[in-house]
Amino acid sequence: MKKISFLIATALCIMACSGGSDEQPDGPGNGNGNGGGGSTPNPVSFSNPIVGKQLPDPTIIHAADGNFYLYVTQQDNIYIPIYKSTNMTQWTYAGAAFLQKPNWQPDTRLWAPDINYINGKYVLYYTLGHWDLPKNSCIGVAVSDSPVGPFTDHGKLLDYNSGTMQCIDPCYFEDNGKKYLFWGSYNSTSKGYEGGIRYVELSADGLSIKGAVSEKIAGPSIEGIMVHKRGNYYYLFGSTGSCCEEERSTYRVVVGRSKNIEGPYVGKNGTVMKENSSYNEVVLQGNNLFAGTGHNSEIITDDEGNDWFFYHAWQKAKIDNGRQLMCDRIQWSSDGWPYITNGTPASVSRAPVFKNEEEKE
Question: Any idea what DSSP says for residue 241?
């Protein structure tokens, strides 16, 4: 472990020379990102935001080619931007998932993708979302042979008939040979519908629903969920609060756990998530520098056994940059609960460690 004084000194150099990327996309679907090609030395530390631009609702995969690929909500006419990295610290733009937006649900935008590798294919679940008319929001699925696409759309999987009017924020999880999709969001009494988090079993290829019945697994006060298995427990992460009110945003990440993938999920304080999700154990919340910390990605383990996840946040000093990409290390308490140091974003952190083939020998 490097000494703290060394980390701080190194971080100043990294921030000036080789930290996260502010690179602007060249355009949709051009695939010009190179991710460093393995020639860029791994940085010792990084600073948040790790990419200083609007990249909300991240999802990440460690692909078969050894690189990391990160996908985010639609930006202008870039239909799910894709970023590429060799070390999860330095990111370059790699193209767009879709050359054209899927048009089967009009007057919507592409939100909150979820990337997976299923049966030798890259499978992307996505939301076609409508902010003002939530019943118009749907979840679709697309497939590609390459992590940078282009993805071939396979159309709609779920809509408001699936049991929750907020049909957004898909999360795929495979367990004991079964494939599941989780999704959902908040209640809205003013708009007259009930929210909540639901799940359903998928077909073997992950491209269709196996059976028509969905089950409610968490209450209507979280969204942007992610399921993670560690030891004997399944962990259900979700975001609660307001996502999009700039420095006034109250988004924060909470978690519950269960010994059964189908629940019940219970917080550290004993709160059952199906009844009241927003009062579960808080993993991450804002501080004097960042607000609206939420919609976390999958957890990635580096070559030293450390766990990391990505999320978005508003940087209070640079609100015009939107919901920027953040990264923090997840640690685990002796009784098996995830936490982030101080429960708030790190301004400077030791970087994830990924070794090349020579270093692994």
Answer: S
CA dist 295 and 226 (Å) reads 8
In a domain, 352, yes or no: no
223 is catalytic: yes
The total number of structural domains in the chain stands at 1
Bigger pLDDT: 233 or 220? 233
Q: Residue 9 pLDDT more than 90?
A: no
Cα atoms found within 13 Å of the Cα of residue 56, Cβ hemisphere only: 23
The mean pLDDT of the chain is 88
Catalytic residue (one of 57, 169, 281, 328): 57
Please give the radius of gyration of the chain, using alpha carbons only, rounded to the nearest integer.
19
Question: Hunting for tokens 């991240």 — which residue is that?
Answer: 58
Asked if the model's pLDDT at residue 24 lies above 50, the reply is no
Nearest to 69 by CA among 144, 177, 6: 144
pLDDT at position 359: 67
The CA-atom distances, in angstroms, between 294 and each of 243, 335, 343 are 8, 24, 12
Catalytic residue list contains 169:
no
Pairing of strands 290-294, 252-258: unpaired
Helices (H), 112-182: none
What CATH number does the domain containing 97 carry? Answer: 2.115.10.20
At 245, the amino acid letter reads E
Write down the catalytic residue from 223, 281, 298, 328: 223
**pLDDT value of residue 20:** 55
Task: Assign 156 a pLDDT band (cuts: 50, 70, 90).
Answer: very high
Q: What's the length of the chain?
A: 361
Residue 359 covered by a domain: no
**Separation between Cα atoms, residue 340 and residue 192, nearest integer Å:** 36
Collapsing DSSP states into helix, strand and coil, what is residue 109?
Answer: strand
Looking up tokens 């988090």 gives: 197
75 in a domain, yes or no?
yes
What is the pTM for the complete model shown? Answer: 0.89
Residue 234 lies in domain: 4-342
* Segment 195-201 mean pLDDT: 92
Asked if residue 168 lies in contact with residue 183, where contact means CB atoms within 8 angstroms, the answer is yes
